[in-house]
Amino acid sequence: RMEGFGYYALPTGMEYRGWLWDGMFHGKGELGLPKGGGYQALWDRGVPSQGKYTFADGLEYDEEKWHYCDGYDRRFYTEICSGFKPPGIPQLTNLDPPQIIPKGCYDCGDGFYNPKTRVVVDYKRKFLRNADDAEHEWILRTCRKAWDITEDKPKP
Q: CA 146 to CA 25: how far, in whole Å?
């Protein structure tokens, strides 16, 4: 079994870098996600404690003091870090400029959703999942639609 400090690539694309004991994560280590971000924790026989999740854009999740998108402050993380754009120039997503949505699809945050096929693909068009009824309804109700985006630019 694996022991000591090491690096382990999981079949899901996630990667662990840290201490191992008896084939389990044990001690300080980080579980990295394929698209960036990860979970740093102190592990005890494969169970994390004292952990901290960091998103790919650098935003750190704090269970005790989480104020991001809490209803009172609705800024994107990039707006918190860099400030607002001038009036008349909207920022539609945390990624600026946002992804261009294919015709007939929705941007659901981790990729595009086609309501005809009920399939979510990532931004490189790789299959992620089939949407169940609850996710389908949520996406139709809340996500950006390709046909709502205009090419109009604000007039000087």
A: 43
Q: What's the half-sphere exposure (Cβ side, CA atoms, 13 Å) at 78?
A: 12
Q: Which residues pair with 18 in a beta bridge?
A: 6, 29
Helices (H) and strands (E) in the chain, counts: 2, 10
**Every domain of the chain and the residues it spans:** 4-54, 99-145
pLDDT value, residue 152: 44
- pLDDT tens digits, residue range 28-69? 999 998 878 899 999 999 999 888 888 887 888 877 777 666
What is the separation, in whole angstroms, between the first and last Cα of the chain? 66
- The amino acid sitting at 62 is D
Which residues are 141's β-sheet partners? none
Q: Where are the beta strands (DSSP E) in 22-67?
A: 24-32, 38-44, 47-54
Encode burial over 51-62: b for 16+ CB neighbours within 10 A, e otherwise.
Answer: eebbbeeebeee
Amino acid at 140: L
* 127 membership: H or E segment, kind and range: strand 127-130
- Contact between 1 and 23 (Cβ < 8 Å): yes
